[in-house]
Design goal:
GO terms for molecular function: protein-disulfide reductase activity. The protein is of the alpha+beta class and about 130 residues long. It has helices spanning about 10-25, 40, 45-50, 65-75, 80-85, 90-105, 120-125, and strands at about 5, 30-35, 55, 60-65. It has one domain (about 5-125). The chain contains seven helices and four strands. The longest helix has 16 residues, at about 90-105. The radius of gyration is 14 Å and the shape is globular.
Length: about 130
């Protein structure tokens, strides 16, 4: 599979969102937690993966709402217009602050847990050896 969509597998809100994508948005991408992915092979750093969802395909890597836009443009016909609109510069510029707001508060959203608000290093430390 040449397309990959990475998300935070330690975050329940993110996992539920990814499950929605897998169930309702047919895409060519492998939707996978970044913690289970070979980040080096994908050309992504852990810091990048922690910061936002990421779409990866040969010659194209996008993060946050830009990644979601690409995923939707690569899905069934009825998702493509939504991805197209989300890709438009004025919409994309507005989508980033909304994405960051949701990302910073995902632990407060339905399905979110306290772990959702912690960086991976903190999660690892709390989990112990």
């Amino acid at each position: 599979m040449d397309h990959t969509f990475l998300y935070d597998g330690d975050c329940a809100f993110c996992t539920q969102s990814a499950q929605f994508l897998e169930k309702h948005v047919r895409t060519t991408a492998k939707v996978t937690p970044w913690q289970w992915a070979d980040l080096d092979a994908l050309g992504v750093t852990q810091d990048e993966a922690e910061a936002a969802v990421i779409w990866i395909e040969p010659g194209l890597t996008r993060a946050g709402p830009d990644a979601i836009a690409v995923l939707l443009r690569r899905a069934q016909w009825y998702w493509k217009p939504i991805g197209g609109v989300l890709s438009l510069k004025p919409v994309s510029w507005l989508a980033w602050p909304v994405y960051r707001l949701i990302s910073r508060n995902r632990h407060k959203l339905p399905g979110g847990t306290a772990a959702c608000s912690l960086p991976q290093a903190e999660r690892d430390r709390l989990a112990g050896p």
